[in-house]
Design a protein that fits this description.
Blueprint lengths: L2 H53 L1 H8 L4 H9 L3 H15 L4 E5 L5 E6 L13 H8 L6 E6 L2 E10 L13 E8 L2 H11 L2 E5 L14 E8 L5 E9 L2 H49 L13 H29 L3 E6 L5 E4 L1 H7 L3 H4 L24 E9 L5 E10 L8 E8 L1 H47 L5 H26 L6 E3 L1 H15 L4 E7 L6 E3 L1 H17 L5 E12 L13 E10 L29 H11 L3 E6 L5 E8 L22 E5 L3 H13 L3 E5 L2 H10 L4 E7 L7 H11 L5 E5 L4 H9 L4 E4 L4 H12 L1
Parallel strand pairs: 15-17, 21-22, 21-23, 23-24, 24-25
Antiparallel strand pairs: 1-2, 1-5, 3-4, 4-5, 6-8, 7-8, 9-10, 9-13, 11-12, 12-13, 14-16, 17-18, 18-20, 19-20
Helix pairs in contact: 1-7, 11-12, 11-14, 13-14, 14-15, 17-18
């Protein structure tokens, strides 16, 4: 786009802004006028209500403050036309400016009626007896309007009672109604009193005259005895303030327009001489790639003169930029420069092309999101400041390969074109794999340290089972409940320990989930009390109102177990090992103590021992990888470094306090999870009724088949037994219509459980299926989920577990 065209657009923009300003000024004036009209309308409406109340007082006084009420009572009983003519027609109506009057007996029969000025069109009372009855019983107001041939008639009424105060509670002796015509004279009177034009308008007429923006219109409905509008009283007032406001608005509009035009002309002339001409000189210099034309800027402003010198220096910097770009391409890591707002790639180095396999033109201008395959894993809050962030992402190469890269993203200094950021990406796929192997090796090291304790505790749990079987074999009598409870406790304890050790040994990194810290401490406590020497006293304490945390239970188990094993090794002669947890609020007072943890709610877990302690000269090195004071057969020095990495990946920090001879205390700070609630997955008793349904049981172990057969028949189920997948498939095909549930072991010779379930799913997609196994890895669990299996029963299991699984599958 040429410079002249740009200035044309600029001038057009200025004109647009000017017009918009004038329009906004007009809108503001209209808004001010509307507010003024609204206020005047409210004031006029209040004044009109008061005025109508005042002008209606004579009629109200006539019907409520009549001075001859005792005579009126006698008149209703014994009508006297002469008395009525003198006291009602002449005196009352004349004095109170009434045009008509009516007197009714209590049974609503008219006794007397009179009109003023021979207006016979008002002689019939303009209401039916049913309306009079409602007014007499208080169901309608005795003040209303009625349309008559003579015009709109305002009618007010009141009951006739004697002056005796005791007569108020009695029924009225009759009714007096008076009326007044709203004729031209009365409307003229209202016009004079309100200084406005007053008229009567039909009820369907528009409420306001929108074409007259200087007028204030007030419309008041005049209703009949039922509350329905008869006519509208229309008051039209033209305030002087609105007229002045409109005149001032027009004057402001004219002045603003004139000023804008003058400013626009001055702007165009100044731009041409002060901007366009010097820019033409700069353009000529750049086209010729020579500083010679820049001499024409000497007579220009100092700014353009300085700009000319800068352009002259730019020719000298071009060679330097070429050298910098060569160094940029020599970087081995992938370097990408992107726009901050659009996240589009603007520049890449040769390292990025080599790593990702793209050509430069294929990456330039491309959104960075095209390379990313999943959201970034953000660093914990203690990591680098916001302007220098380190993250891990997955990038997709041109050939479809996925690379895990560690990136460092930083904002570049302000650019004249757009805000830019630089991303340095390093391929860490192999490094991550080695790190995972290192974590697994450290877990196996911890398991090796626990092996002796595990064997000892397993022997303790097998002892009562062996004794129970020998007693049962020798005596043949029914075992005692105490012995049965001991055997059941030993089996459950052994199964739980094996399950925990199997999960920990595999090192499966699960999803972050809400964790109850007391339960986490209890699980570590069970392993410690089962595997550590009896000379070590274990104690666990947790605050009653302890918050939950969001974390990976397997990794946090590894951290706490590493610290407990180190504490055990530091107490060869025995001692006390304490696990405790409490809530902690990190604020600006104690933030520096906790390795720059972000302010907020945290949970503090402490592992303390009474062992030999750590020398001061070693405190700064204990978290270094492969640093250890143990012999080669006792450890590799990976425990504390691995624990530090896990804690930091959870957004926490760790501190250690120790004094030689007085033990050590490791304090772990983890962010509290206030948005979710950790739940306890303890088994709950359940009931189940088989109702004769058929279950196919597939198990290669004969002992388990026998026990399952008896257990399921005890639950009123019909059982079909198979010892392998082939025979089970044959049974299923013969009894396909009768089978309600299939229970199969996963690991069997020949056709295993997954192959059997796949074959059954092909013929019965909706049939409930349960699988049994003593070990399920991630690959097997993914296959189970793909086959839509109703549930997994972990071996060993008891009666409660199998009942719960049956309820889940069959309802």
């Amino acid at each position: 786009m040429s410079l002249q065209l740009r200035f044309v657009l600029l001038i057009t923009s200025v004109m647009t802004v000017l017009i918009a300003g004038l329009w906004l000024q007009q809108v503001w004036d209209d808004r001010e006028a509307a507010m003024l009209r609204q206020g005047m309308t409210r004031e006029r409406a209040e004044m009109l209500d008061k005025l109508l109340d005042v002008t209606g007082q004579p009629l109200q006084v006539l019907v409520t403050d009549y001075s001859l009420w005792d005579d009126m009572v006698n008149f209703v009983s014994h009508p006297d036309p002469e008395w009525a003519r003198i006291n009602i027609a002449e005196t009352g109506m004349t004095t109170h400016h009434a045009d008509a009057a009516w007197v009714f007996r209590p049974d609503l029969v008219e006794v007397y009626g009179a009109v003023a000025n021979d207006q016979q069109a008002l002689r019939p009372f303009p209401l039916p007896r049913s309306a009079l009855a409602k007014i007499a019983t208080g169901l309608a107001e005795p003040h209303f309007f009625a349309a008559t041939p003579a015009g709109l008639l305002e009618i007010r009424g009141a009951p006739i009672r004697p002056t005796d105060v005791h007569a108020v509670v009695k029924a009225p002796y009759g009714w007096l109604f008076v009326g007044r015509l709203w004729n031209d004279a009365y409307l003229q009177k209202l016009s004079l009193l309100t200084d406005s034009a007053v008229c009567l308008a039909p009820t369907g007429a528009p409420a306001n005259d929108e074409s007259n923006k200087l007028a204030v219109t007030i419309t008041k409905p005049l209703t009949d005895w039922q509350g329905r509008p008869v006519l509208n009283l229309r008051v039209l007032h033209t305030p002087l303030a609105l007229a002045r406001l409109q005149a001032d608005s027009r004057m402001d509009l004219g002045i603003s327009t004139a000023f804008g035009l003058v400013a626009l002309v001055a702007f165009v002339l100044a731009t041409r001489f002060w901007v366009i001409r010097p820019l033409a000189v700069l353009e000529s210099s750049l086209e010729q790639n020579s500083p010679a034309p820049l001499s024409g800027l000497r007579s220009s402003s100092k700014e353009f003169n300085r700009l000319g010198r800068l352009v002259e220096k730019s020719f000298q910097h071009e060679l330097v930029l070429q050298q910098v770009f060569a160094a940029f391409n020599a970087i081995q890591d992938a370097v990408l420069i992107i726009e901050t707002d659009t996240r589009r790639i603007t520049h890449v180095n040769d390292g990025a092309l080599k790593l990702l396999g793209y050509r430069r033109d294929e990456l330039t201008g491309r959104p960075l999101a095209d390379l990313e395959t999943e959201p970034a894993v953000s660093t914990p809050p203690f990591a680098p400041p916001p302007q220098l962030r380190q993250q891990t992402r997955w990038y997709r190469c041109r050939d479809g390969r996925l690379l895990e890269v560690e990136i460092r993203e930083q904002t570049l200094p302000a650019s004249a074109v757009a805000p830019l950021r630089v991303i340095v990406a390093r391929d860490v796929t192999e490094m991550k794999r080695q790190e995972q192997q290192r974590l697994q090796a450290q877990r196996l090291e911890s398991l090796g340290n626990l092996a002796g304790g595990v064997a000892h505790d397993m022997n303790n749990m097998l002892t009562p089972i062996t004794m129970f079987l020998e007693e049962l074999q020798q005596t043949g009598s029914r075992p005692s409940p105490e012995l049965l409870a001991s055997v059941r406790s030993s089996v459950k304890r052994g199964a739980g320990m094996l399950r925990q050790l199997l999960t920990f040994g595999r090192g499966i990194a699960g999803e972050r989930q809400p964790l109850a810290v007391p339960r986490l401490l209890d699980e570590i406590g069970r392993i410690v009390t089962s595997t550590f020497p009896k000379s070590i006293q274990f104690e666990s304490r947790a605050a009653s109102n302890l918050r939950s945390i969001l974390g990976d239970p397997t990794q946090l188990h590894q951290v706490l177990l590493n610290l407990c094993v180190n504490a055990r090794d530091a107490m060869p002669q025995g001692g006390r090992l304490t696990l405790s947890a409490e809530n902690l609020l990190v604020d600006h007072f104690n933030q520096s103590v906790w390795d720059a943890a972000a302010p907020g709610n945290y949970v503090l877990i402490e592992v303390a021992d009474t062992g030999t302690g750590i020398p001061p000269e070693l405190l700064g090195r204990i978290f270094d990888p492969f640093f250890t004071t143990k012999s080669a057969d006792q450890g590799t020095g990976l425990g504390l470094s691995t624990s530090l990495g896990i804690i930091r990946s959870h957004g926490g920090s760790i501190r250690v306090e120790s004094e030689p001879g007085h033990g050590a205390r490791f304090r772990i700070l983890l962010p509290a999870d206030d948005k979710s609630v950790a739940t306890d997955s303890a088994d709950k008793p359940a009931e189940f009724a088989g109702r004769g349904r058929t279950v196919l049981v597939v198990e290669d172990e004969a002992n388990i088949r026998v026990v399952l057969d008896k257990t399921l028949r005890r639950l009123a189920l019909s059982v079909l037994l198979a010892e392998n997948g082939e025979s089970a498939l044959a049974l299923f095909q013969r009894h396909r219509t009768d089978i309600s549930l299939v229970i199969s072991d996963l690991h069997m010779p020949g056709m295993d459980g997954l192959a059997l379930v796949g074959a059954i799913r092909g013929e019965a997609p909706d049939l409930p299926i349960l699988v049994m196994s003593g070990r399920v890895d991630d690959h097997t669990r993914d296959a189970i989920n793909a086959l839509r299996i109703s549930g997994i029963v972990d071996k060993p299991f008891g009666f409660a577990q199998i009942v719960q699984a049956l309820r889940q599958a069959l309802g």
